[in-house]
Amino acid sequence: MHVRYRLPILPVLLFSVSAFGQLSTGGTPPSFSPEHEVVFSKKPRPAPVKLAPLDAKTLLIEDSKYQEQSRFAAPLPPVDFSLETSGQWVTLANGDRVWRLALESPKARGLILMFDQFRLAAGARFFAYTPDKAQILGAYTEQSCLPDGQFLIGVLPNDQAVLELYEPAAAAGLSKIRLNRIDYVYDPAGLAPATLDTPEDFGQSYACNINVNCPQGQNWQTEKRGVGRILMVFSNGSGWCTGSLVANTSGSGEPYFLTAHHCQIIGLLPNFNLWRFDFDYEASACANPQSEPTAKSVLGCTRVAYRHETDFLLLKLNPIPGSYNLYFNGWNRTAATNSNVPNSTFIHHPNGDIKKISIDNNPAIIFNQIINWGSGFGSTPAGSHWSVIPEEGIYQPGSSGCPLFDPNKRIVGQLHGGNLDTALCKVVNSWFGRFDLSWDQGATADTRLKEWLDPNNTGATTQNGYVQPAPTTINIGGNIRTHWDVPMPNVLVSLSGDETRATRTDASGNYLFSGLPAGLNYTITPTRDTNDINGITTFDLSLINKHVLSLENLDSPWKIIAADANGSNTVTTIDIVEGRKILLGLNTAFPNVSAWRFFPALTNFPNPNNPFTGFPGGGPPEFLQLNGLQDNVTDANFKGVKIGDVNDNAKPGG
Fold first, then answer.
1. Is 311 a catalytic residue?
2. How far apart are the two ends of the chain, measured CA to CA in Å?
3. How many domains does the chain have?
4. Is 31 one of the annotated active-site residues of the chain?
5. Looking at the structure, do residues 425 and 483 belong to the same domain, yes or no?
6. What is the C-alpha separation between 216 and 220, in angstroms, rounded?
């Protein structure tokens, strides 16, 4: 029989969209840089392409008829913007290129950008930002791209967005970008200030929720590291759910993630390649923070198994960076009784907000009645769910799929839904699909858990959680460019420390050491000591002389280092003499320094007017020291300085 309650039974879901969290390197677009001001003043940002707005009122009325699929953003008519057909190219003084495209859809509360082609060449950087520069997303790089070429950026607030691609001259034409869909945010709930009736993400959950770092979460600091929120992408919108990384009996790092089956049917045609998983998205203390915390995000997954009856969905995430230090939660599939879960806890992201915790001090009870979940969600059999009513904390839409833990901190179910009394801010009832029934009641491997979580068929009924396993091998790679931002090919890069190797940069200035043992210590050192005369002219000597006489100082720490021709960590008339000897052919090499010097790209000079000071042991280090590595390094980047060349005209390849 169907069960009735005075409050509606709702699957715990939420349609919402928030800023996308792919891997990005930060920084600012080239068009913001003062050094390119002259170029961009001659070619100002192109006028925005006008896109027709949507009728927000009509969409809100339509959404009111389908509560389980309530959106706040909907697709505009299909678009086709590419590097070849749209936007504006600007060539910089060194031959590098910048592409910009501006968009506007009047009265939109935000724009979400989706790409069916997103391939960035080595050294390329992609940004999206608001015209007032208040919000900048990126830089996205070659490492940010998904294998299938899809990509999503957003939400950019308000009705305008600017896209900007930087492409080095050596990689001209190698990037492929096509924007094929733009979602128009029309519902005030999308970006409006928080109220109890406007579900969104950060700061939008009820005040009676309890942050996971409050005293109630003191004993759950390990398990919380496995719980994450999910931004789900569908053909007609996006939504929030919660879930957890889950351990398997082999103790491996297979990134299986347990959530709720109904999460994948709250929209049409889920695009698992663009589902995003946010970990460590929480307050640092008990109080709600004033600013939004930064999450550790993983983009993309594949669906492994699911079953309606117990409302479980098992996903396999794309590889998780080892530096995330997450936790794979354990589980208990012992046949359920009304006494073997004497108290329970669940950790979740209500309304996509920061991580919360809820506690039920009474036994979880097997609910022996059919539950009718309403339009679009069907019913579930009697006995398929736990019934839980927490005394502390609640749940909300967006909490769906969160793990229910027994007293031994093992997962026994995942949240399906229930009843809330919003006036009193309390749970009337909540139901969690039973893990023990999800284990083996499905007819095939894609409808049950056992093949995935017990790959060696041990028959284990419980599994403890474990810390994210460390990788056995890692890669170290990066890019080497002149300090004026031109790729440097054929630079010798040496790796020393616990392993010794050498390689050279490719045409785009990239290098890679692959398959290195994890956990060891490595030093990266680039060198080039050929063609000392490269880039040196009488004009350089004149500029150095003016600097020595304080008539006209060199305008960057990199140029001051370039002027130090004798390696004394000062700039004097002796450097001018050494440069003149090279120029006249009296010497073929500088006496104490290599033709090029290389410094980590993120070197910060405490005194830019005297870049030789403020570092332990003298001048800035000319190497990168990487100790105890447990994860790949993709940004071990360097900048090259050509000794004697202070007007940046040396050829980077020679």
1. yes
2. 81
3. 3
4. no
5. no
6. 8
